[in-house]
Amino acid sequence: MKINTSLVIFLVMVLLTAGMALEHSRLAIIPFIIAIIAGITLISKENDEEPKIKKVTIINNDKGNVSIGGLVVVVLFVLFIIVMAVLLGSYRIETGTGAIITEVNGNKVPMTEIGWHTRTPLLTDVEKYSVVNNNIYFPADYLELENKFKGDSQAGAIGFDIKTTDDKVVDTGAVMAFEIVDLIQFGVKNTHPQEQLQKAYDSLVFNYLQSQSSDKITTQITSINAELYQKLKESKIEEQFGIKVNSVSLLRPTFTKIALDALAEKQAIQAKSEGELNAAKNRAEAIETIAKAQKSQADILKNVPQEQLDFNAKLALYDTLKGSPNVIWVIPTGQPVVLSK
After folding, report:
1. What pTM was computed for the model?
2. What residues are paired with 248 via a beta bridge?
3. pLDDT at 154 > cutoff 60
4. Of 204, 229, 254, 295, whose CB has the highest number of CB atoms within 10 Å?
C-alpha cells in the first residue's frame, strides 16, 4: 500500500491550523502555509502523474482530461482555505464582554458591540475581556493556594503573611469585585492591564493591612472591609484603569501556625520572667522587713542596762535546757541555785 506523503502532511497541517485558529494564535500561519504548499503539491501530482489504473474521466475536451480524484482534491483544498479564513478572520462578542483589536498598523481599537465581527486573519490580534463581575485577589494565587491547602486551617499559608503594628504575623487575603466601565482606558492606555491592575491592588491592600493591629484584622473584619473599600475609592486605581470598584472583602484572617507557636513561646517566656521577677521582689521585701525588725529591736535594747540583758540571757538558756532529758544539773550540797540579775 503506497502512502501519499503530501496528503498526510496536508491533513495534519489542516488539523493543526484549525486548532491554533480557534485560539486565535498568530503561529497558525506556519501550519497554514505548510498546508497550502502540501495541497498545491498534491494537486500537481494528481494531474501530472500517470496512473497505473485507468482513471474515471468526467470531463473530456481539447485541453485534457480531469479525473474524479483530482477534482476531489481541488474541492477539499478550496474548502480548507474557506474554513480557515472564517476561523481566523472572525470573532464573537458576547453579553458582558468586550474586546481590544490590535490592527495591522499597531492601533488598538475597543469593540463592545454584541455579535460576530470580522478581522484580517493572522495579521490582527483579539484580546477579550469580561467587563462585568470581575474578581481580583490578594495575593494573585490565593485561589490556587486555597485548593492546595483545602481543609488546613493553620499549617498552610493560604494568604499573605502581614506583619502588623503590634509585631505579630497574620495570614490573610482579600478579594475585590469590579467592572470595566472604560475599555479604552483599561485595555488601550494600559499595555498590560491585568498585570498592572494586580500590582496596584496588591500594593494598596498590603500597605493598608500593615498599618493595622492583629486584633483588628482578626476580629473587626467588617470595619476592615469598609476602610479598605474607602482606601481603594480614594486612590486613583479607578481612574487609572477605567474600572469601578464594587466591593472588597477580607479573606480568612488568622494567625499562622508558626505565629501561634511563636506567640505561645513568647507568652511562656514572659510568664516565667514575671514569676522570677515577683519571687525576687518578694525576697527583697522579706529582707527589708527583717532588716527593719532587727533595727527596731536594736533600738529598743540600746537603753536596757547590761545586767538586765545578762539576766535575760541566763533565763533564756535555762528555759531552753530545762525540758531536755540529756541535760544534767549539778548543784553543790547546801548551796541553793540562785538566778540573780
Report:
1. 0.56
2. 176
3. no
4. 204
